[in-house]
Amino acid sequence: MATQYEFTGTNAKGIAASIERGVADGSLPPGSALPPVRTLAERLGVSPGTVAATYKELRGRGIVTTRGRGGTVVAEGPAVTSRRPPRVPEGLRDLAGGHPDETFLPQGLPSLRVTPGARSHRSSPRVARLEELVRAWYERDGVPAGHVTFAHSALDCVARLLSVELRPGDTVAMEDPGYHHMLDLVPALGFRSVPVAVDDEGMRPESLRAALRAGVRAVVYSPRSQNPYGGCFSPQRRDALAEVLAEASDVLVIENDHTAEIAGVPLHSLAARGTARWAQVRTVTKYLGTDLRWAALACDATTLARHDGRLLLTSGWVSHALQEAVAGLLTDAATQALVAEARETYALRRRALIRELARRGIAAHGASGLNVWVPVRDEAAVVNGLRSAGWWVAAGTRFRLAAGPGVRITTAELRVEEAVGFAADFAAALGERQDTYGG
């Protein structure tokens, strides 16, 4: 129990703020048990009902959770903080960040055509030539492009879609393990997450069906380059998931195709299959530049109207200068050649590591994308063992809701010839063979 933390406040709002500060500054880390309602009420001189209301508010905002007889504890991914990775220790090779290899990113931007003068772009928020490119981009991959728009990033787009569609307390089906920032976003918006298990082909149909029967209002997933597991839809898996979604056609389905051009596998999209409410989000940060905070969105007409209506009331539009930069890179032959090289190289590096781990009896998952997931029993032991060998990988805890432990290895910068050495060090970190270690 967090007996050393000094709780303050004389009403529910003040007590909640006190707990939130403790969570934000690390004084109340994830898993910390809060005092029982009556205990804290006596300590602060307030009624038990006031403390109960405080805990209820914090639960609704994703900051704490209740474990039955285990009491109220700080959530594993509290909404006032995020599952940010620890700082990479000096001198270690960073394979934890999920970043692309800078070698394959454009080193400059095309010359921009900036609209002169000071005026609002609310009446024409999208640059026409970029909108045409986006429609062709989607249509190339079989995604309906009758309704498209832009946002500032995938997270920005998903947050807006969920905010206009759901109400506080509603539930969202999330991949497990899944992208840690997305896992943090849902409770931060006041929603609850329902985990959906994944495998090498993405979301598992039976797990999605269970989530839908639990009453989820939206589903968020990646059809390829699933982060951290690397799964990608096969045509069979896509069709099986579409059949499941047909049982709940009013659920909003959000598809995050965040590495569209470098996933290394074809897209088998669920967009507009089995549900009337759908959206597919695409970004370019992983292959055109991490500072290009731009996203494209294809969706149904209702979703478009709700998204753009909220955008109009906030930032209004996405910077036209940014749109011009993206359009320039998407049409630049040298940049596209670089992207094609990146796509091929990332696939070779990912497969090389999986192959070398398999030779040592270690099961790994990474059918697409920039990362490989390795199930382990003790995340900390593996992370620390690899640290001793000069490598830094990501413990899986910040990617998980109910899934078993594992570690995520970003292979984007792990050269093919380095896979042998890393796999040997990984096997040494396990300290025993995979058939007894588990996975």
Could you explain how this protein is built, in words?
This protein is α/β, with parallel strands linked by helices. It has helices spanning 12-24, 37-44, 48-60, 128-140, 154-165, 180-188, 205-213, 235-245, 301-313, 320-330, 333-359, 379-388, 419-430, 434-437; strands at residues 64-66, 72-74, 93-94, 148-151, 171-176, 192-199, 202-203, 218-221, 252-257, 278-283, 295-299, 371-375, 391-392, 394-395, 406-410. The protein has 14 helices and 15 strands. The strands form four sheets. An eight-stranded mixed beta sheet has the order 4-11-10-9-8-5-6-7, with helices on both faces. A three-stranded antiparallel beta sheet has the order 12-15-14, with helices on one face. A hairpin with a 2-residue loop joins strand 6 and strand 7.
Number of helices in the DSSP assignment: 14
- CA-based gyration radius: 23 Å
Task: Estimate the mean pLDDT confidence.
Answer: 91
| Content-based structural category | alpha/beta
Q: Which of globular, elongated, flat, extended, rod-shaped describes the shape?
A: globular
Low-confidence stretches: 433-439
From the N-terminal CA to the C-terminal CA, the straight-line distance is 33 Å
* Percent of sequence in beta strands: 5-15%
Main β sheet profile:
8 strands, mixed
How many β-strands, per DSSP? 15
| Element string (H = helix, E = strand) | HHHEEEHEHEHEEHEHEEEHHHEHEEEHH
Sheet with the most strands: spatial strand order: 4-11-10-9-8-5-6-7
Q: What share of residues is helical?
A: 25-40%
Please outline the helices and strands.
Elements: H1 12-24, H2 37-44, H3 48-60, E1 64-66, E2 72-74, E3 93-94, H4 128-140, E4 148-151, H5 154-165, E5 171-176, H6 180-188, E6 192-199, E7 202-203, H7 205-213, E8 218-221, H8 235-245, E9 252-257, E10 278-283, E11 295-299, H9 301-313, H10 320-330, H11 333-359, E12 371-375, H12 379-388, E13 391-392, E14 394-395, E15 406-410, H13 419-430, H14 434-437
Parallel strand pairs: 3-13, 5-6, 5-8, 8-9, 9-10
Antiparallel strand pairs: 1-2, 4-11, 6-7, 10-11, 12-15, 14-15
Helix pairs in contact: 1-3, 2-3, 5-9, 7-8, 11-13, 12-13
